[in-house]
Each structure stands twice: as structure tokens, then as C-alpha cells.
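Q: Here's a chain of 198 amino acids. Please give me its 3D structure as C-alpha cells.
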Amino acid sequence: ALDEVLESLRAKSLETPIILQPRLVNHPAIADLAADSLLVVRVITCLNALFEPEATHGMLRILGKLEPTWGTTVEFGAPVDLATGRLGALTGDKIDGALDWHCSHPVTGMRVEGRFLPHWAEIRELAVTAHRASRGRLLIGWDIALTAEGPLIVEGNGLPDVAFLQRVHRSPIGMSPLGPLLTFHLRRLEASRREIRP
């Protein structure tokens, strides 16, 4: 059956360009937190006062809408400690569960809080390295898959959801590592506006 699917795609590609990619599979250390979907770690990076990117937040994202047997569209998020890669408790992005915190996954029952992400230093550095190649952006939210082969970038988001991020971390951006970086850039913009006023 797989040979037939591949042959069909090959034939179709002669008329329409197709990108065929291998299916990414979750690292065994986190595979029990999903059934079919690919988990990603959202890493926020921001340029600092030297215009070098820094990682300011990490968050494990679990998308319920990609799990057909779960019967939920909730996106679950757990904070990742920047220094250690240790996961905190899960919460959801829907308003009816906005104040619910789960030490274990509410669907799979597997423990989340206290678990350490393998390759966390590599994940964080991958986001910073990718931002160095995208210096035109002040702030980027990177979605990075942790596979058995190691971390891989899925995408970079120029306008990441910061509301859910703050709730997952139980801290406003102004009191997070991102706060001083944004303050620096806002003050720089204010100063440049004063300089060009007639």
C-alpha cells in the first residue's frame, strides 16, 4: 500500500510540484504525552542590547486538535525552565480551563511536571542560532520538534501568542527575562523619535 501511495505521489509530481517530507516522530522521552501528533517546544528569542538573540522563554506545546481520539481542541502548554529544561505543570488555552493546572497530562495521565526535556541546551541554542540568521526580526517564537534524532526547527513565528505564554509561565512579560530586552528597544525607539522631531 505504501508503494502505491508513493507511486501516486511520484506521478502527480510530474504535473504539480510536491514537497514530500519524512514524518517526524517524538523523542521517546516525551512520546507518551501524545498519540499521533508531533509535540513542539516553543522557544522565544529576542535581540538584546548588543543585538544578539537571547532565549527568554520555553514552553512545551501539545495540540489537542491534532489528536483525533482525544475529543478536544485544547492546546496544552507547560513552561520549560530556561536553565535546566525542567517542565512545570500543564494548562490549557481555552477560557473554561484557564485556571486549571495539571501535574499529569489530563488525557494520557502521564506525569509532566518535574520531567526534564532531553537535549534542552541544544534546543535553546538552535533557536538562538536560527535567530542570528534572521536578525531583521526583534522577537521570534520558534517551534522546535524534539525527535529521536535530536531537535529540528518546524517553524519560526514573527507574531507568537504572548498571552498564552504569560499564563503558562504564570508571569507577565514585564517580569520575565523578555521584559528588560523589550524595554531597551522601546527606549531606543523613543530616543530615535525625539531625534527626528523638528
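Q: Can you summarize the key feature?
A: The CA atoms of residues 143 and 155 lie 5 Å apart.
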